[in-house]
Specification:
about 30% helix; about 20% strand; six-stranded mixed beta sheet; binds iron/sulfur cluster; 30 strands; about 700 residues; alpha/beta; seven-stranded mixed beta sheet; 24 helices
Length: about 700
């Protein structure tokens, strides 16, 4: 009976960056079902994850007591999450927090603050992200704090900061309603941002022209006027060829370029070398198609560009984003209704966690740690705290530093590097090597297998706090049910750990943390906790205490010196690891509709696990025939870093020389295979391209 519940609580879906608002129906302190409500990003809609992916919070594997590793218990993937007693012993909160503080604080006192690093979480609230970075900076005196943005949009952020002056989207995805042409590149929104995809489909239904660009086929192509299935890793050659046509045929917006941008002459000269007729062999798209797409986008009255991990997760990820920014700028497609640049954010709070300063080179609101004035402002806000002006290490650099013996202790909250990092064997060896590892999470994750102390945290539907979606909409998350057993909200745990490390912050509620954040973050001007409680969501920037927020920014000026955006030319560079005789195919990884990242939550959601229960990869039918494997049979995938066995599906969306592998399955962990080579600017790994061999099992 859908009306048989005790209470209904409004919150935000904990999965993707769309940030759908939900109503949680609760009976006997259990969420029994979820409905979409009228949030600004979803207008009542939900996808299968939002609708059915809630019962993980009541799963018997939930951590409900603090745990301390038993003396002498070996570290490694040997702990049954439902039966940990041989490896860990139950502890009181006091004992666990003391052990954590003694472990990390002891390393600080003996080896210096730089011997301890932190990974915060994009699944925690803004207030929790803020406290986490404050703990590392204030408590350990440096900036070695990062989170999963490093693995998703760090290269997009690098390019946007460089050329636009702001890392957030210039327009909400809902602005597609006012566009007549849109490009979706390196993103598969029907699977990964499903509710955003509904707006994209509506756009085409009313005549909007959609151009999809992706090395892998996808169902959004059914709605597209053009599907450019380019060769993996050939984005820059394709995008430069499109821009070449716009220059050659004079389709650019001279007035906009002169008024709003800089470095046009250099860009124009650079593009001379990229004629489509020359690039077609490199990118695999016929010159005529490249010319047609260039004309279509440049001819738009209002055009938008959306992109995802297919763009960002390359060693040339920053170059890819530079090209997309340049394409929009030369056509004057920023700052008006129906125009804009929109990197689709993955996690429900990756935008907010980044805004809150969970980044090694930036304080909250992307204020450089190297700037003495900005650093001084935060030092004053934090009672005179002293911390380094040196940019911190990023996620993958921190794990390398563990191998090198420079980092000996870590505090990891809500991240799972033992599954999510590239070349995960290297990452697991680093975790095993740590002198002291504190993991704070809702399940005994693969990373928690290496912990010395495990602190049980509340799930999103059990906590208070704000989150910021891909649209810059700050939304209020509200607790619907209590956490299991002794589990606590992350903000409260971080405060207690900080207190034992000598930092007495005095916060007793996230609203007080939000109030402090407002003092250091101009983006939160006119946004108050009370407003968010009352209105549910406010988009930043909000110009007055009543303004619901600005969906489009940078109409008159960009937040760069001189107010102008910049063209940065990008040259073609090859992927780090090209196929050869030993590893002749290309491996690319990603998500599936039903599963979320490392699978800790969705594989414990009954319906989602039932729909997609098995580790799988996708191969073209001709590749399967060549291997002598039936669809549904097993194959072995091997790269220079390791190999896995996995069930193969026949899928014409992948080309015959390519394999697609989702990364949610621990029994066939994709990141055993992936290449850790980094983009030099965003320091993002090349998850989207590795040389691989496929064998029948
Ligand atoms: Fe949740 Fe994203 Fe699905 Fe919305 S689209 S219900 S935010 S997973």
């Amino acid at each position: 009976d859908s009306t048989d519940f005790d209470r209904a609580v409004k919150s935000v879906c904990p999965f993707c960056g769309v940030g759908c608002q939900v109503s949680l129906k609760v009976k006997d302190d259990k969420v029994i079902y979820v409905e979409g409500i009228d949030g600004p990003a979803n207008e009542g809609r939900l996808c299968v994850k939002g609708r059915f992916g809630f019962d993980y919070i009541h799963h018997p594997h939930r951590l409900s007591v603090p745990l301390i590793r038993r003396e002498g218990a070996e570290k490694g993937l040997n702990v049954d999450p439902g039966n940990w007693a041989e490896v860990f012993r139950e502890a009181t909160w006091d004992a666990a927090l003391e052990a954590a503080a003694k472990g990390l604080g002891g390393l600080r006192d003996t080896h210096g603050g730089r011997s301890v690093a932190g990974f915060g979480s994009a699944k925690c609230t803004n207030e929790e992200a803020y406290l986490f970075q404050r703990l590392i900076r204030e408590g350990f005196g440096h900036n070695n704090v990062d989170h999963c943005t490093r693995l998703c949009h760090a290269s997009s952020v690098a390019a946007l900061m460089e050329n636009v002056g702001s890392a957030a989207v210039t327009a909400t995805f809902n602005e597609i309603e006012n566009a007549d042409v849109a490009i979706v590149i390196g993103a598969n929104p029907i699977e990964n941002h499903p509710v955003a995809a509904t707006y994209f489909k509506q756009f085409t239904k009313r005549g909007g022209k959609l151009i999809v660009m992706d090395p892998r086929g996808q169902s959004l192509a059914r709605h597209a006027t053009h599907m450019l299935q380019f060769k993996p890793g050939a984005d820059v050659s394709m995008l430069n060829a499109i821009m070449h046509v716009i220059v050659e045929e004079g389709l650019f917006d001279t007035q906009y370029i002169h008024a709003m941008t800089e470095n046009w002459d250099a860009m124009r000269a650079h593009l001379a070398d990229f004629a489509p007729e020359k690039m077609q062999a490199i990118c695999g798209i016929p010159a005529d198609t490249l010319r047609a797409v260039a004309r279509e986008f440049a001819g738009a009255k209002a055009g938008m560009i959306f992109w995802g991990m297919g763009v960002s997760q390359h060693i040339h990820g920053t170059d890819n984003s530079r090209c997309l920014i340049s394409l929009a700028l030369m056509c004057g497609q920023v700052g008006r209704p129906g125009t804009g640049l929109h990197p689709l954010r993955g996690q429900n709070n990756v935008q907010g966690a980044s805004d809150a300063g969970l980044i090694p080179m930036f304080l909250p609101d992307y204020q450089s740690v190297a700037d003495d004035t900005l650093r001084g402002n935060f030092s004053a806000l934090w009672g005179g705290a002293e911390f380094s002006a040196e940019k911190g290490l990023t996620v993958t650099e921190i794990l390398d530093a563990v191998h090198e013996g420079q980092i000996r202790g870590m505090y990891i909250s809500g991240e799972n590097p033992a599954m999510s990092d590239p070349d995960v064997v290297h990452a697991r060896e680093a975790l095993a090597k740590l002198d002291h590892l504190v993991v704070q999470d809702i399940f005994l994750t693969e990373t928690a297998n290496y912990a010395d102390v495990i602190l049980p945290a509340a799930a999103f539907y059990e906590k208070s706090g704000t989150v910021t979606n891909t649209n810059r909409q700050v939304q209020m998350g509200r607790p619907a049910v209590p956490p299991p057993g002794q589990a606590r909200e992350d903000w409260a745990i971080t405060i207690e750990l900080a207190r034992r490390l000598g930092l007495d912050w005095g916060f007793t509620h996230p609203s007080q943390v939000f109030a402090e954040m407002k003092q250091g973050m101009a983006s939160l001007e006119n946004i108050t906790w009370e407003r968010l409680e009352r209105e549910g969501a406010v988009t930043y920037p909000s110009l007055t205490p009543d303004d619901p927020g600005q969906p489009i920014v940078f109409a008159d000026a960009f937040p760069r010196a001189g107010g102008r955006a910049k063209f940065t030319p990008a040259s073609v560079i090859a992927p780090d690891e090209l196929p050869d005789a030993d590893y002749p195919m290309v491996l690319t990884t990603g998500r599936q509709l039903e599963h979320w990242h490392t699978g800790a939550m969705t594989r414990r959601s009954k319906v989602l696990d039932a729909v997609e229960p098995e580790a799988n990869c996708s191969l073209h039918p001709s590749t399967l025939r060549h291997l002598g494997v039936e669809a549904g049979g097993m194959v072995r995938l091997s790269t220079r870093r390791g190999s896995i066995s996995v069930m193969a599906r026949a899928d014409r969306a992948v080309s015959p020389d390519m394999v697609f592998l989702p990364f949610a399955f621990v029994e066939a962990a994709a990141n055993i295979l992936t290449n850790p080579a980094l983009d030099p600017y965003g320091k993002i790994p090349e998850f989207k391209f590795a040389a691989v061999r496929v064998d029948a099992v």
